[in-house]
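We close this part of the discussion by returning to an individual protein. Part of our work consisted of pairing the sequence of a single chain with a tokenised description of its backbone. The amino acid sequence and the backbone structure tokens for this protein are reproduced below.
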Amino acid sequence: MSARFLRILMCASLFAFQSAVLADHTEVAERYSHQRQLFKELTDQLQSGELDAAIARRDELKGYPLKEYFDYLVVRHQLKQSANPASLLERVAEFNGDTRLQRRLLGVLKNRSVALERWQDYKLAWADDNSPDHPCDDLLAGFINGQPKRFTEPTRKLWSDVGRHTANCDKAFSMLLAEVTDVPTTALWQRTVALVKRGDLEAAGSLLKYFNARDKRLVTAWIDGYDDPAAALRNEVTHGNTVHHKVIAELMLRRWARDDLPGAVAYWQQNATRFGFNEKEANDAVAGYAVLAAKRGIAESRQLLETVAPNRDVRYWRVRLALQAKDWPRCIATLDELTKQEQSMPRWQYWRARCLELQGFQSAANRIFEAISDKFEYYGFLAADRLSHQYAIQAAPLPDADSAMHELKDDPRVIRALEYFFAGLPWEGRREWNRALKGSSKERFLGAAQLADSVDWHDRALDSAFSAGATDVLPWLFPEAYKEDVTRHAASYDVPREFVYGVMRRESRFTPDIKSSAGAVGLMQLMPATARQMGNELSIKAPVWRLIDSELNIKLGIRYLHFVLSRFDNNLAYAAAAYNAGPKRVKKWLQAGAAGALETDIWVELIPFDETRAYVQAVLFNTTVSEWMLKDGQVTRLENRMNSLSVSQLAE
């Protein structure tokens, strides 16, 4: 069956599916449209402080799936304003049918009680079995309300876990230490080590009075050696075989390695056992630093990699350094050192073929390229480029999931999830959706994917498709999401739409309100500083809270894509790397790798950050498949998107 016929078949299937989906979308979206509009109006009133006006119209929400959520929002606002938060405990108890909401309200009650210093009110909230843990507030409230001041096991653990501390922990522990004369030795060591690790040397020094003379010398050596880790490790006072010696020794070694990695490694190879490390632990540490040396481009890295016991990362970086040096015979030799399983991976098969090709063994290389060119992944596409083959992209016909979808449309939990989504509360909707589908069958997940897709809830469609194992149903996995906004802004800044989708899929999986642990927000996972910079250029205010707005996030994200593409002469690999790791780092990597001297596929393999390397490969793959979907099977080959670029061509 030809690829063209498959595309025609897919389009016909998609047209019929979309017609049915449109009807489903209309039915689902319109089911509560009037009450949904009222819900939005009333929640807006709550936000603007018109509490009484919103409550007066509460009964108009009767029968609406989110009526209980509105009641929750009312109580939440009342708690935040109350001068007597415990008076609302009975209202909080009414939410026992949804313990998730009740637990949140108890947390708000606790916070309000702390703010008002109403510790008896706090005690009442704390007594509820569903009360969330607020460890520092709980401890302080307990002491204020008469709890004996002693180091219980939970208190000892909290004292040691300095990362969880708030100002109320400091107050509570000051009260505790004012009365307790015997500090538990284990807790004392754990807290001291934790404070030294985080660089809070003053706080660590304040604990010296609890140590005996010998241990005081050890802790003092740690503190004094924090800024001179080489001297600290060489100081015999710091030698020992307890877990605390090991933790601080590792810290000092890391700090030493920042400035003198070869020196730190050489010392560790000879002296690790002085700190309680066995031979394997020492070798593992040296291997890790050898890989770090390779990533940093340190001249001694190859020698270090050769002298350590090989683990996976060591083996991989031996291959990469051979690629960087253009030592093709050595490349083959290092590939032969991989495990059989590693050698069978498309990544390393591709590089074996490339190294053979670069030595002139084209027939042998082509046989390997042929074997992996049918893989639906980044290295499969690269192999297809070497042979001028079509990419292995095929979309399976959309599965018949009508029965499961219609059943889901009448599930009260799914109805609530959809209403959260329609009402602009997707984070609540995802939680409800995931609970409704937990443990579902493949058929039910397929129905869920079809239902989510029918209402343009793209992140739930993609997630449900993966849960169903439907990894070849491309319309669900590579949707034309937020089509109007992407099309308009991509055209405005001359950024390929498929590249926008390639980045968006990798960054957020089409989740508009997602926030990363690093602080990135929204569909394009913009860092607040980047959003401000792009916003300033467009005379748009872009505070963090606005970045979950899909239209604004897309506009600013595409503006930034335009910037990095311009900066790197429209090379998608470099631009994607810059989007993830920053343009300055990418320029540094290009300069270190003698940009233009290395072909771009090799340069991508040599990206020092594992996350960025995987990111670039995923974005290039996503971009290719998205273009195939957008342009009815037409694609721009990766080799044409990854032309090499000399450092002199970089825009300032």
